């Protein structure tokens, strides 16, 4: 016996048509990627769900926790609060683009050396945010680092060691470390 | 989030035309507030018009010798602009007191003016809210209202305007440059935002087709005696319970010119010109500041959980005016706005 399975056959309203998508070109970690995306896809979802770049984390999805921090044209932003289509043509760097397993970015190495995490979920956002902080060059003191990292929450409370890791790179005499 | 289409605006005039033709169009710039509200189903635009490619990013000299802030310049680029740091350090301090570095890198000056209240009931679509759903009632009056307004409230709404930047713009007597179908016009900052009255769904006085193109800062010098004091539940990355922008021009110890505006207490940035008049010509003493503070809160009304704000505002005004007179706050000092 045939069972009616479509919405119409079941007497329900028809499902809305699939969302219109458009081609979006994003330059991520130096590589151009072409995607077919619905307009409401956040940059964060584009990275995680369409490009398998799962280093960038989804925490609150409302710009409150900083786990999704990436660099756009060198500046740190919350990737959950921008649409992928809005970033067409922009130069995006995620945690995957900072270093390699054999050649960690100085901040990645400093986070390891200072035990600057516990569960690690906020870490990619913390590191991308700290890269942005170093580029901005505004924070000089411990207190200033804390203030300028306040957009990144750590539920494990590893703040003390996070600040130590950033301080080490900030105060490193080798300017190469602050690339 | 609801289904919507997305297009980029090709020019200011085209953007104004498209908005006038379809009221369901919403502008998007930095996106930090509207996308959050769309995720909460508070905003449900059928079409987003992206303004980011319009040529409105410049920060440049204004014809009167003041400074013109492009509507699409980011909050971060504005706060750290050398002219803002040098000539308008109060604005620098107010911007740096708000949000986080990531958000300030995204959020634009124009967008800052249009951000919506953070009233919990406005965000919670399961509860009545006259601002979100006109006529449905106000859940904050008689509900949890610790963060709500004490000045200029109505029976329909006790929401606050959340911006720090706008409190400084009010104190600095900024003007907003606007483009609409009928051409360009300027709006005094004090007339840009409105009180809730019986139409709390409207936060500002612009027509639906109007677009902010720039904010002008007048050619006035409050760079020596100013304070942006922000009091909040944690020292960083939180909205103000009460904030005070105070700016003075002193002749010896006599106040020549005074500006006083509050955040976190009303539906709009709350500049009090009567209190400013009380300060003018008086010695810059605590006694003078107390009189001004008493005047500001004389019409304040508490709603239970937020009643503490009346005394807090009074004390914050006195402290901010003292800091301003002493000249102890400096541009780019990223903590002075909140330290105890």
From TrEMBL, chain A:
Gene3D superfamilies: 3.10.20.30, [2Fe-2S]-binding domain. SUPFAM superfamilies: 2Fe-2S ferredoxin-like (SSF54292), CO dehydrogenase ISP C-domain like (SSF47741). Residues 22-98 form the 2Fe-2S ferredoxin-type domain. It comes from Hymenobacter metallicola. The keyword RNA-binding does not apply. Transmembrane segments: none annotated. GO terms for molecular function: 2 iron, 2 sulfur cluster binding; metal ion binding; oxidoreductase activity, acting on the aldehyde or oxo group of donors. It holds the Pfam family Fer2. This is 2Fe-2S iron-sulfur cluster binding domain-containing protein.
From TrEMBL, chain B:
Residues 1-222 form the FAD-binding PCMH-type domain. One of its GO terms (molecular function) is FAD binding. The keyword Flavoprotein applies. Keywords: FAD, Flavoprotein. Pfam families: CO_deh_flav_C (PF03450), FAD_binding_5 (PF00941). The keyword Flavoprotein applies. Gene3D superfamilies: 3.30.465.10, CO dehydrogenase flavoprotein, C-terminal domain, Uridine Diphospho-n-acetylenolpyruvylglucosamine Reductase, domain 2. InterPro entries: CO_DH_flav_C (IPR005107), CO_DH_flav_C_dom_sf (IPR036683), Diverse_Substr_Oxidored (IPR051312), FAD-bd_PCMH (IPR016166), FAD-bd_PCMH-like_sf (IPR036318), FAD-bd_PCMH_sub1 (IPR016167), FAD-bd_PCMH_sub2 (IPR016169), Mopterin_DH_FAD-bd (IPR002346). SUPFAM superfamilies: CO dehydrogenase flavoprotein C-terminal domain-like, FAD-binding/transporter-associated domain-like. This is Xanthine dehydrogenase family protein subunit M. It comes from Hymenobacter metallicola.
